[in-house]
Amino acid sequence: MAQQTQIERVAQRWPLMMRRFPTPDKMAQCDEQEVLSLWQGLGYYRRARYLKRASEVIVKDFGGRVPSDAELLLKLPGVGRYTAGAVASLAFDKRVPIVDGNVHRVLCRLENKSDTPAPCSWSWDFATQLVQGCTKPNILNEGLMELGATICTPRNPSCDSCPLSGDCKAFSAKTQSTVPPPRSTPKRKRLHHYAVVLTCKGKIAFEKRNAQGLWAGMWQVPTFESTKKVKKIQVAKELQIDGELSYSGTFEHSLTHRIIAFSVFRCEVGEVDRYTWYESQALERIPLATAQRKVLAVHCSA
């Protein structure tokens, strides 16, 4: 849950998840929609779907117990080398490395290596050497991650507070601010989503997104997606809405690789079979991405 998510948000959701799914078996038996619902606000919803699938494999192939070996952990859906190393070393004290962006930066500065902007085979090999030579791999791995997150930061590292500064070649060479080199940031795509809050006798229409792609498996109000701006008459045509659309407002929602400009409309219609209709008090129980919560907020404030 903490991967690519602010820890404050994780702290809000973690107790709920653990109460509902204390064991892999409990999650394996539930519906994916329930997992997505509890995951709301954490983003990167593919992780929630992988977690559900991994729980099913754990029950089916490992008797309901999370494997402790990194190689076996790699067999679980959604588990890569970093996650496998984290679980194996931190939870089971196995002598395996962990390399994320923070650890990679610490290792590069220790060796003053200036040609590897991202985790690579070199940093994994170096981390393996360190963990093989230590007595407490869990403490080493957690310490390297924490050091990179709090002291050996990308900008303005606190070298005077660093316990490794005496052994740091970048600190000695005064290159710590440029090592490792910054990663190039691709330009984010700009997209347009036209969301229409359809209401009928106090209920709101929702549709389920496709099983693949952005916000897969989540729910949304009827939405037309475009790479360019369009007029509301085209929105109504694309969504097959007969009534008049009333403008509610706009907002931008930023993601890692794209910026989505949302235009929100509203329309009172008769109940249409192709949608699922919910009363407002039931909306907390269905999985809605943060962007959809913003859509509803714009609608309510219009």
How are the SSEs ordered, and which strands pair?
Layout: H1 7-20, H2 24-29, H3 32-38, H4 46-62, H5 70-73, H6 81-92, H7 101-111, H8 121-132, H9 137-150, H10 169-173, E1 189-200, E2 203-208, E3 219-220, E4 223-226, H11 232-238, E5 246-254, E6 258-268, E7 276-279, H12 290-301
Parallel strand pairs: 1-6
Antiparallel strand pairs: 1-2, 1-4, 2-3, 2-7, 5-6
Helix pairs in contact: 6-9, 7-8, 7-9
Question: Can you describe what's shown?
Answer:
The protein has 12 helices and 7 strands. The chain is α+β, with helices and mostly antiparallel strands and 302 residues long. Strand 5 and strand 6 (258-268) form a beta hairpin. Helix 7 (101-111) crosses helix 9. It has 3 domains: 7-92, Hypothetical protein, domain 2 (Endonuclease III, domain 1); 101-173, Endonuclease Iii, domain 2; 189-301, Nucleoside Triphosphate Pyrophosphohydrolase.
Oligomer: single chain
Question: What is the count of distinct domains?
Answer: 3
Total beta strands:
7
The CATH architecture assignment of the largest domain turns out to be Alpha-Beta Complex
Order of H and E elements: HHHHHHHHHHEEEEHEEEH
Q: Output the radius of gyration.
A: 24 Å
The biggest beta sheet, please? 7 strands, mixed
- Whole-number average pLDDT? 94
Shape: globular
Q: Unreliable stretches, pLDDT < 50, 5 or more residues?
A: none
